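Handout for the seminar on molecular recognition.
Each group receives one record of this type.
Step one: identify the two inputs.
Step two: read the structure output and locate the region that could contact FE2/S2 (inorganic) cluster.
Step three: write two sentences on what you found, then compare them with the reference statements printed after the record.
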Amino acid sequence: MTDSQLLVEIAGSEQRYVCERGDTLLRAGLRAGLGLSYECNAGSCGICKIDLISGELDDLYPQAPGIKTAPSRRASPSSMCRSIDHSG
Ligand code: FES
């Protein structure tokens, strides 16, 4: 791991993968070979919804229609295709 990488762990599973800074959690997960569900890849369908347990992420498309950020986690996006490393 380098400073430009984020380790993503999927709760309730043994799955984990590395996400490069500036990449989305969805793209990095697919590239790592995970069978992640997605449809629009633009933050509007909600298929790749996540619940962030720890860490911080930035929202790549804060103005995207469709699913909104959970009130309890306003600073965090709610889908994998919108989520990028907070430090990036
Ligand atoms: S694939 Fe549609 S919201 Fe992520």
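Reference statements: Confidence is low (pLDDT under 50) at residues 70-74. The chain has one helix and four strands.
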